[in-house]
Amino acid sequence: MSAAHCFQRPSGPVVYLGRQNQEGSNSNEVSRTVSRIIRHPNFNNVSRDNDIALLRLSSSVTFTNFIRPICLAAANSTFNRGTTSWVTGWGTIKRGVPLPSPQTLQEVDVPVTGNRNCFCKYNPSGRTITDNMICAGRDEGGKDSCQGDSGGPMVSKQGSVWVQAGVVSFGIGCARAQFPGVYARVSQYQSWINTQITSDQPGFVTFTSTGTDADLSATCTGLPAVTTPPPRPPLPWRK
């Protein structure tokens, strides 16, 4: 699974599994060519809505201690504002600054900001945050995914189980105050994913946040009023 915007002009992509460093050897790494790229049919390159794609590998992969699957967030999952998430990738460490040699895989923890709060931050810049997106970042900035991380995973932990909540999509700059990163919301695509993968379907897990979602108190111009919250809070309407 990756971001649709990464494959607008695909030219024989190769998937590397178990890789730690971009330079030098990786003894636990295996690679596979891609036999098919399935972009979401409603992907919009301007708004980045539905920024999700599936990759079919040319052959199967044997799981090891270094290559493991992850559970995907099920359709009724809730990620309240403040839920801790982690993002991994080999992208730039800040805007215009590449990851130094040997380019070791990086990880950063960022809290979910909530879609209402995220809408209020992005709407003045002309960006729309939709139900198909999930945002994460700190109000003061300083931590974020960045250019080159696109298509990578945003994950959260529930008990002992890691669950993928998002796919790196876009943002304004990197780690800027008041501009969280925006990710494709995996839980919106359970049905679509299952229609594309007819055998050996991925495992979906319902991620459940407890307590009242602080995001419900967010208000700003253009943001719909909160009605009586259903089990899954109503949400309005990248890197």
Automatic annotation (TrEMBL):
Domain Peptidase S1: 1-198
Superkingdom of the source species: Eukaryota
Keywords: Disulfide bond, Glycoprotein, Hydrolase, Protease, Serine protease, Signal
Pfam families in alphabetical order: Trypsin
GO terms (BP aspect): proteolysis
Keyword Ion transport: no
Signal as UniProt keyword: yes
A molecular function (GO) term: serine-type endopeptidase activity
Transmembrane segments: none
InterPro entries, per the entry: Trypsin_dom, TRYPSIN_HIS, TRYPSIN_SER
Protein name: Prostasin-like
Organism: Clupea harengus
Designated gene of the protein: LOC122128520
